[in-house]
Design brief:
Layout (H helix, E strand, L loop, with lengths): L1 H10 E3 L5 E3 L8 H21 L8 H12 L8 E2 H8 L7 H11 L11 E4 L19 E4 L4 H4 L9 E3 L6 E3 L8 H4 L2 E4 L4 E4 L4 H13 L5 H4 L10 E3 L2 H10 L1 E7 L1 E5 L4 E6 L6 H13 L6 E6 L8 E5 L5 H11 L3 E7 L1 E4 L2 E4 L2 H41 L2 H10 L6 H9 L3 H8 L8 H25 L2 H19 L6 E3 L18 E7 L3 E6 H6 L11 E8 L3 E6 L3 E6 L13 E2 H5 L7 E7 L5 E6 L3 E6 L11 E3 L8 E7 L4 E6 L3 E6 L14 E2 L9 E6 L8 H4 L9 E2 L15
Parallel strand pairs: 10-19
Antiparallel strand pairs: 1-2, 3-5, 4-5, 6-7, 8-9, 10-11, 11-16, 12-13, 13-15, 14-15, 17-18, 20-21, 20-22, 21-25, 23-24, 23-26, 24-29, 27-28, 27-30, 28-33, 31-32, 31-34, 32-35
Length: 748
């Protein structure tokens, strides 16, 4: 019994919730409780400590790296190996060397991500405009802090920001960097957290400083006057839209349109693209252009290559003879990322809480935060000066009677009693007495005494001046404004992104207008082969060739710009242009539609409809006796979608699909030998493609709708016998002389 009891005890285990249970057992827990206990802390950590920038414009990873470099003295020293920097940053950032180095790459001058890089780099740091250019390993590159970092760390040792423990509480690091300019708007920043994201575009430093100053002087200042739009490190052109810009400035959400810069070189008949939108890459553009050339949508390009070198980005397009460069670029802007959008989501952490703000509100928050930094600096400076003043006032008392001080010290027998005796004789405190006792003998002269007395007056004036600034909101603003003006003057640069205020409304050719237009005849076989034959080839051809066991389903005249709708047994419709099919001959089998259009397994053709302008209607007849009337334009799409799901109702098998240009008299037949005639005008058109329609035949048990044909093609002679004024109708028993010669395009 004792042994069994011991074995039972060994099988027990205390789980993380403090519940005692057997090894391998589980305890029930509500999913909401699991999310709250396990997921929410992770989500908040990602939001607050990783992905969303704060008011200084940095994420924690940026701040830790830059502060480490600052403590290494890299603001003044020469560059050191990046691997050295990465290694030392791990004292503050525990996320691994790869993540730290990737952060450095983004901040580096060589990568060109930022308008004002914070890391002065040497070596290959990749390029922001290249997807495939890999940066060199950290052991091969070197780095130091760029001179603009002086504005990040100015007065950081004057208690301007809070210092917090690092992850193992062995070092202190700044919670924020006391940036003297609104870096949050100057440096582009992107982050994806849990349930939210941030995407902040970069603005020109000089324009941001001017705007911040203007808002401090006049809160009703129109931001658009001093901040016309974002400025990106990759340059390009900004297509200005006042309404959109004002909305982004107001709400912090929206998107700016960017367009590549290009020039036409007449000598070589080529186009050179020298700047591209910030949101794309050269490889993405070239892949898209190659795709368009392969699809036959762009025919004016002979060759395209990437000629980017140390001189900067350059994509070169060789043109074919006669190509219009202006029209080509307009089409490329429309079809490729050479014209792209930068989506804005100005989500910033304010006091530890994420908040989406407009530009004005961001600058207001930055000004309030910067004011607090300046106040803390003033408090620190006043404190230091008051400490110095306190010491000098103690010294002043003694220097007025230096002989008495010397006598006190000489007559004191024990060293430990020197300080107390000085305190008693001159009425000073211990700090002052200690300071006096440490004065060198050589300093007891008239010049030194006068100099120290004068310093007291100077310190009092300085403290009074600092107190005056501290107690005046206007003077505090003037301090910040002066610093902004200095930063703007020292580091301001001309805009890289050119603003295009008037975008030329170039008429862009529609894709269909680029397709040659000529008459063709389309032949479709019962097994789903399609041949497109020109009029000239048709006149010269002989008998149409089909696969063994196959035959012609129908033929129609159309144009090369026409489109086809292919309905399948999987309730889908595949769309294609006739221009996508090669011109064929009667002696060829043609293109097999399931293969050409990419059918799914076991998917078969039910009907093929030809159209040029999507005018008219489609009629769907189902076994359950219902019919649906859908306008043809319900299948027209603005985008070049090739596959439409839910093309017709799946409630009952479809029997017939017809295309009509106008309402017609129809004859419908049932499997129990009955027929009815009705007008399609009795059917109300439905814009929903998968509509079930309305009943046109009242069917007896086990009977189904068999066929539907246009009355003129039905062979019925006695129309009045089968005609009905209302639907649904039971119809009339079909007489032998009215029996149709049933022929359908496809066996369905």
């Amino acid at each position: 019994m004792a042994r069994k009891k011991q074995e039972a005890e060994k099988k027990k285990k205390v789980n993380t919730d403090g519940v005692v249970g057997l090894v391998g057992s589980t305890t029930e827990q509500a999913i909401t409780e699991t999310l709250e206990i396990n997921y929410m802390p992770y989500a908040m950590s990602v939001i607050v400590s990783r992905a969303i920038p704060e008011i200084d414009g940095f994420k924690p990873s940026h701040r830790k790296l830059l502060y480490t470099m600052y403590k290494m003295g890299l603001l003044k020293k020469d560059r050191v190996k990046s691997a050295n920097i990465v290694g030392q940053t791990m004292q503050l950032n525990p996320h691994g060397d790869a993540a730290i180095y990737e952060t450095m790459v983004r901040l580096a001058k060589g990568n060109e991500t930022l308008l004002h890089p914070f890391v002065d780099s040497k070596g290959n740091f990749g390029k922001v405009y290249s997807r495939d250019m890999a940066y060199a390993a950290s052991r091969y590159t070197e780095a130091k802090l760029d001179s603009i970092c002086e504005e990040l760390f100015r007065d950081i040792d004057s208690d301007t920001v809070d210092m917090v423990d690092n992850y193992d509480s062995t070092l202190k690091e700044p919670a924020l960097l006391p940036t003297t300019f609104p870096n949050v708007l100057v440096s582009a920043n992107q982050g994806i957290a849990v349930g939210m994201a941030s995407n902040i575009c970069s603005f020109n430093l000089k324009e941001v400083c001017d705007t911040a100053i203007a808002l401090m002087k006049n809160p009703d200042h129109d931001i658009l006057e001093t901040l016309p739009g974002p400025d990106f490190s990759t340059g390009a052109e900004l297509l200005f839209d006042e309404a959109t810009t004002r909305e982004i400035y107001s709400t912090g959400r929206g998107s700016f349109k960017l367009r590549a810069k290009w020039r036409y070189v007449k000598e070589g008949n080529l186009i050179e693209i020298t700047e591209i939108p910030y949101s794309t890459a050269t490889e993405v553009i070239m892949d898209k252009v190659a795709e368009l050339i392969k699809a036959g949508k762009i025919k004016e390009i002979a060759d395209m290559r990437d000629e980017t070198d140390l001189g900067g980005l350059k994509l070169t397009i060789d043109l074919k003879r006669g190509a219009d460069p202006e029209k080509l670029m307009q089409r490329l802007f429309r079809l490729t990322p050479l014209q792209d959008s930068f989506p804005c989501n100005f989500n910033i952490l304010i006091a530890g809480m994420p908040k989406v703000m407009g530009v004005g509100e961001i600058l207001e928050e930055w000004t309030a935060w910067r004011t607090d930094c300046v106040k803390r600096r003033l408090f620190f400076q006043i404190g230091k000066k008051e400490e110095r003043l306190h010491l000098l006032k103690g010294l002043e008392r003694i220097l007025l009677d230096i002989d008495k001080a010397i006598a006190v010290i000489r007559e004191t027998e024990q060293d430990s009693e020197v300080i107390p005796n000085l305190m008693i004789e001159f009425g000073i405190d211990e700090i002052q007495a200690n300071y006096v006792a440490e004065i060198k003998l050589r300093n007891i002269n008239k010049e030194y005494i006068l100099k120290q007395t004068k310093a007291i007056n100077q310190l009092e004036d300085e403290i009074e001046e600092l107190q005056g600034i501290l107690n005046s909101s206007k003077k505090l603003k003037n301090v910040i404004i002066k610093e902004l003006q200095q930063v703007s003057e020292k580091y301001g640069k001309p805009r890289k992104t050119e603003i295009v205020y008037e975008v030329a409304e170039t008429v862009v050719e529609d894709e269909t207008e680029q397709i040659p237009d000529y008459p063709v005849t389309v032949f479709v076989s019962r097994e789903g082969y399609l041949k497109k034959i020109t009029a000239q080839s048709l006149r010269m051809s002989g008998e149409q060739k089909f696969k063994e066991g196959d035959s012609l389903a129908f033929s129609r005249e159309s144009t090369n710009r026409g489109e086809i709708l292919v309905f399948t047994n999987k309730f889908q419709c595949y769309k294609s242009r006739l221009s996508d099919f090669d011109d064929g001959k009667a002696s060829q089998l043609g293109d097999y539609l399931p293969q050409k259009l990419g059918f799914e397994a076991d998917e078969k053709v039910l009907q093929v409809i030809l159209t040029v302008d999507y005018q008219g209607m489609l009629l769907f007849f189902f076994e359950n006796g219902k019919a649906a009337k859908v306008p043809m334009n319900a299948y027209e799409t603005k985008t070049n979608r090739r596959k439409l799901t839910g093309a017709y109702s799946d409630k009952s098998p479809v029997v017939k699909i017809l295309a009509l240009t106008e309402d017609q008299q129809m004859a419908v037949y049932s499997t129990d030998g009955r027929a009815a005639i009705f007008s399609t005008a009795q059917l109300l058109p439905k814009t929903t493609r998968n509509t079930q329609g309305v009943a046109v035949l009242t069917l007896k048990k086990k009977a189904t709708l068999l066929d539907a044909v246009i009355l003129e093609e039905s062979g019925i002679t006695n129309h009045s016998r089968y005609r009905t004024k209302t639907i649904p109708s039971a119809g009339a028993v079909l007489k032998p002389e009215d029996s149709p010669d049933k022929q359908t395009a496809f066996d369905i």
